[in-house]
UniProtKB/TrEMBL annotation:
Species name: Peromyscus maniculatus bairdii (Prairie deer mouse)
Residue ranges occupied by any Paraneoplastic antigen Ma-like N-terminal domain in the UniProt entry: 1-92
Pfam families: PNMA (PF14893), PNMA_N (PF20846)
PANTHER family, per the entry: PARANEOPLASTIC ANTIGEN (PTHR23095), PARANEOPLASTIC ANTIGEN-LIKE PROTEIN 6A (PTHR23095:SF40)
Family to which this protein belongs: Belongs to the PNMA family.
Domain Paraneoplastic antigen Ma-like C-terminal: 156-317
InterPro entries documented for this protein: PNMA (IPR026523), PNMA_C (IPR048270), PNMA_N (IPR048271)
The protein's name in its UniProt record: Paraneoplastic antigen-like protein 6A
Length: 366
């Protein structure tokens, strides 16, 4: 029903449903500032987005919003919930599989069970030629038995006291590890999607940050990071010391350092070594004192600290990534300028082999 609402709304607005998200469960009294802040924190890894409209739904006693992304939905990054005002907001998107693809998988599964394709049309009311086309589709996307027998993971948020319906990390990890063995033939992107589907809260934001920093990370990489954060037995004093002494390595990008620091901070929160409310302040202090910052970024972060507005993890990571992209463009432009000047110098030498001309501040000297 919610997917149909998303598709209809996108059709009315003239946008692609593959680039649309429907946000459900937004409290009616949620301010625009709170709404935008929650969206930016959750959807930042997916790129730019635009809120196309809102409508109040009586059946939910809450507001729904239509969001358009600047690209098609990335199933590995899209959150299932947004931590908004007074509870999570549900995120609805068009499923990855079309009807024909899904039916193709059904036919393949039935064949694996020893049933013939000819026995299927009567039950589904399909023509035989259509069945044959769908059979070829199913064969092209071999194997799909795992998908049809898909068992979702339990829910894990990283909270010290799991909410109703959530699991403690050890139980969640055991089940997830077993399912990863079952899913060995499942495509990597689908495996990451299934992992994210079972995450909430801090655990979800941590994996989103890891994938934003490197979208090529595997589901096993993400599970290993979660295990490092939530699964070891370090003492409070040890993990607190690691947080306060962590510093950027000489060959380490600033964004990589912040991700490494975030793993330590979340672990410290789990162990009770740090208060959750102080995390943003500690993170900012460590970056300002233990990292190598360029002047514009350092000045911006110092101003935020002076006014008492420490950025969240995703906000800080966004600022750092923008700074790194700016530095990369600057280096690229300088290299191009050097190459151009070297080319001009070679041309000048060819035209005047007996005389050496150098352009620039020393023009006229030889």
């Amino acid at each position: 029903m919610a997917v149909e609402m998303l598709q209809d709304w996108c059709r009315w607005m003239g946008v692609s449903a593959r680039r649309g998200l429907l946000i459900l469960g937004i409290p009616e009294d949620c301010s625009e500032a709170e709404f935008q802040e929650s969206l930016e924190a959750a959807l930042w890894p997916m790129g730019h987005f635009t809120v196309l409209g809102k409508v109040f739904r009586e059946e939910d006693n809450a507001t729904a919003a239509l969001v358009e992304l600047d690209r098609e939905v990335n199933y590995a990054l899209v959150p299932r919930e947004i931590l908004g005002t007074r509870g999570p907001w549900n995120v609805v998107f068009v499923p990855r599989c079309s009807t024909e693809e899904l039916l193709g998988r059904v036919f393949h599964f039935l064949e694996q069970q020893g049933q013939t394709v000819d026995s299927v049309p009567g039950a589904l009311g399909l023509e035989l030629d259509r069945v044959c086309r769908l059979q070829s589709v199913s064969q092209a996307i071999q194997p799909w038995v795992e998908t049809l027998q898909y068992q979702s993971l339990g829910v894990f948020s990283g909270s010290v006291q799991p909410a109703p319906g959530e699991e403690h990390f050890e139980a969640w990890l055991d089940h997830t590890t077993d399912m990863f063995q079952v899913w060995q033939r499942v495509p990597e992107r689908e495996k990451r999607r299934r992992l994210l589907e079972g995450l909430r809260g801090t655990a979800l934001y941590l994996v989103h940050g890891l994938l934003a920093e490197n979208p090529a990370r595997t589901a096993e990489d993400c599970l290993e990071a979660l295990t490092r954060v939530f699964g070891d037995n370090e003492s409070q004093a040890t993990i607190r010391m690691k947080c306060l002494t962590a510093q950027q390595q000489s060959d380490e990008q600033l964004s990589a350092f912040v991700l490494r620091l975030e793993v330590l901070l979340q672990k410290a929160i789990q162990k009770g070594a740090l208060e959750r409310t102080s995390t943003d302040d500690v993170r900012l202090r460590q970056v300002l004192t233990r990292a190598n910052l360029n002047e514009p970024l350092g000045e911006a972060l110092r101003r935020l600290r002076m006014i008492g507005r420490s950025p969240t993890f995703l906000e800080l990571l966004g600022l750092i990534r923008e700074s790194e992209e700016w530095e990369a463009r600057l280096v690229s432009n300088l290299e191009a300028q050097v190459e151009n000047e070297a080319g001009d110098l070679n041309i000048s030498r060819c035209h005047h082999p007996g005389k050496r001309h150098i352009r620039g501040p020393w023009k006229g000297r030889s």
